[in-house]
Amino acid sequence: MSLSVAKKNNAKGSFNETQVDDEVFVLTYQNETSENQVIERFIDSSFIQFHFCLKGESTFVFNNGTYRLDIKEESSLLLYNPERDLPIHLEVNPNCWLVTLLISIEKFHGLFSQEANYITFLSEDNRDKKYYKDGKISPSMAITLNQIVNYNLNSSIKNLYFKGKAYELLSLYFNKGEDADIEQCPFLVDESNVAKIKKAKDVIITRMSEPPTLQELSDEIGLPLKKLKEGFKQIYGDSVFSFLFDYKMEVARKLLESGAHNVNEVGLRVGYSTASHFIAAFKKKYGITPKKYILSK
Question: Do residues 93 and 58 lie in contact, with contact meaning Cβ atoms separated by under 8 Å?
Fold first, then answer.
């Protein structure tokens, strides 16, 4: 059995689809534009869909627009209907990050067959019924999801890494233990710490041209410096300033592509007071100078 895919992707932004195992797929999408985008994928009735919205908000559209289902920030949505195909027609709002996990029902039963009474819709009475469920993304799930979205390891191990994260995500999704989040990341005792880490990310992005020092950031979000460093690395897979560097270079790349700014202007926009420093940083990230990058487009 294989996933039936009919691609119609009108979206701009970062979209990736990775097959991580037989009948298991991970899809990620980041709409970094200021406009709504549309993602469409045909998914047949043999697949269970797990959707996770890390940031922003989107809407699933069914039956040619007669039924709409919102998925909000930090929320999840499980969709399964064995009686009919559930193609993805997703209207993605600006500044929205989504992760989707698709797994066939046979594969899923193979993972949890001994837990049929534990996972409600696996029981004999329910296995042939449609099942829709929304929920909140827990701190431990948020860590795993952000590690998927912010993947920056060697491309040769991407499938292996995503496979591990996909199964980790499933285990966290169905884990009912009260201490699950603490076991996943000991310093994250409650969701307020996760919120502070997210605030730290928002602060450095908003003030990327003149970011605060780590100590100033620690004071501003009300989290000890050590916990800030550890938490940021856990959630976003990188140190604060390494994450900021990658973000600034991505902003710079998009500004250069727009053609509305010269190299000096782009450098200033992302926090480099001298063009030479910006050129060196851009070349370090992309292996090419900004000018040559523009000419290559």
Answer: yes
Q: How far apart are CA 252 and CA 266, in angstroms?
A: 6
pLDDT of 113-166, one tens digit each?
555 455 656 555 555 566 678 888 888 888 889 889 888 778 888 889 999 999
Q: How far is CA 89 from the centre of its chain?
A: 18
Under 8 Å CB-to-CB from 10, ≥6 apart: which residues? 37, 38, 39, 40
Can you give the pTM of this predicted structure? 0.58
Backbone angles phi, psi at 124, to 5 degrees: -55, -35
- Which region, left, alpha or beta, applies to residue 74 given φ > 0 means left and ψ of -120 to 50 means alpha? left
CA distance 181 to 189: 8
Alpha helices in the chain (DSSP H): 105-112, 139-149, 158-174, 180-184, 191-206, 214-221, 225-236, 240-258, 263-269, 275-286, 290-296
CA atoms of 167 and 226, how far apart (whole Å): 30
Chain-centroid distance of CA 177 in Å reads 24
Q: Is 296 exposed, middle or buried (0-12, 13-18, 19+ CB in 10 A)?
A: exposed
Q: Are 174 and 140 in contact (CB under 8 A)?
A: no
Interior/surface letters 78-91, b for 16+ CB within 10 angstroms, e for the rest: bbbeeeeebbbbbb
For Cα atoms 284, 95, 197, give the angle at the middle one, nearest 5 degrees: 70
Residue 63 burial (10 A CB sphere; 0-12, 13-18, 19+)? exposed
